[in-house]
Specification:
zinc ion binding (chains A, B); Beta-carbonic Anhydrase, Chain A; alpha/beta; 6 helices; homodimer
Chain lengths: ~190, ~190
């Protein structure tokens, strides 16, 4: 068993030992809202937004982007499980600002099956050598943070399966302070109609 | 300001007030692993797997499914940010087991802009009345939990952009106990090659 697997199982056993009344939580989120945010390791949405188990749906991907899959999840969240307010929360110092589709495609195409990391923390390894699969993926990189939040809130607001009466709030999480800072243009774009 | 927005901002202010050394965390996950799991409100991956801020990437969508977007996120996690072990964690009593594509399409097509909830907790509201957009979405529902974990680990393992040397572990989180239960066939399918 790997060290990580061992550590995760040990932490889980501790969690189980004090699980208590959480066993009785119902499926629908008790506080009727959902957060779409980034997978970044520094972000803990339960902590930064004050969530207990059972409170809210949390959807996360690279960038916290309003991908088709994130919208699939939000529509299910609303339609089947009753959330009535949504947050889109990107963050400062996001990895998605550090590359472009072209860079990612180049990195993947030149993969050499080594596991070196250059000074910037970028790995040049893995994936089938010379694979061109990455050319067909939109990596959803971010050029400018407030803009990405506005774009994503707007995309969700205008999606044909998203009900017009749900407010969508746009925020940026500051990794240096833990603070949620509103992007007013995003929240305005996400206003219920 | 809505009550939810107010509560979230109050919780965030408290988090900010005791942020401390988290301000100095680097972008790459310190423990070099990633978890793909469900958006379900009852799941707190940081708690059930023992994560502190900075430790690991967490990707979440409806079902914890290995969608194209989840794979986009995992490839970025590995390639740019150095994760070297991945977990796929579905859970018992998942909302994705309670409906099918046909049911979802019917619900969306018959939306009446009311906000009723029937006895099963299903909402019949929202989305443009008569919209057929839902017919074009694969909702990634789940028929059987261990099977979905095996399928998703296998899909990730066989994806052309996923390096063959990363182990992928398959688990089910039990919402009644908080326990992570391995799906051995999934972990076997996800073994590094």
């Amino acid at each position: 068993m790997s060290q990580i697997l061992n550590e995760v199982m040990t932490a889980n056993a501790e969690y189980v030992s004090d699980f208590g009344a959480k066993a009785d939580l119902p499926m629908p989120p008790g506080r009727h809202f959902a957060i779409l945010t980034c997978m970044d390791a520094r972000l803990d949405p339960a902590k930064y937004a004050g969530l207990s188990e059972g409170d809210a749906h949390v959807i996360r991907n690279a960038g916290g982007r309003a991908s088709d899959d994130a919208i699939r999840s939000l529509v299910i969240s609303y339609k089947l499980l009753g959330t009535r307010e949504w947050f889109v929360i990107h963050h400062t110092d996001c990895g998605m600002e550090t590359f472009t589709d072209d860079i990612m495609r180049g990195l993947l195409a030149s993969s050499l099956k080594t596991a070196s990391v250059d000074a910037s923390g970028w790995h040049d390894s893995g994936a089938g050598p010379g694979s061109t699969e990455g050319n067909y993926i939109d990596w959803l990189t971010i050029r400018d943070n407030p803009t990405s939040v506005v774009e994503d809130v707007t995309r969700i607001r205008n999606h044909p399966l998203v009900p017009s009466d749900i407010p969508i709030y746009g925020y940026i999480y500051d990794v240096k302070s833990g603070r949620l800072v509103e992007v007013p243009e995003a929240t305005a774009a996400g206003r219920a109609r």
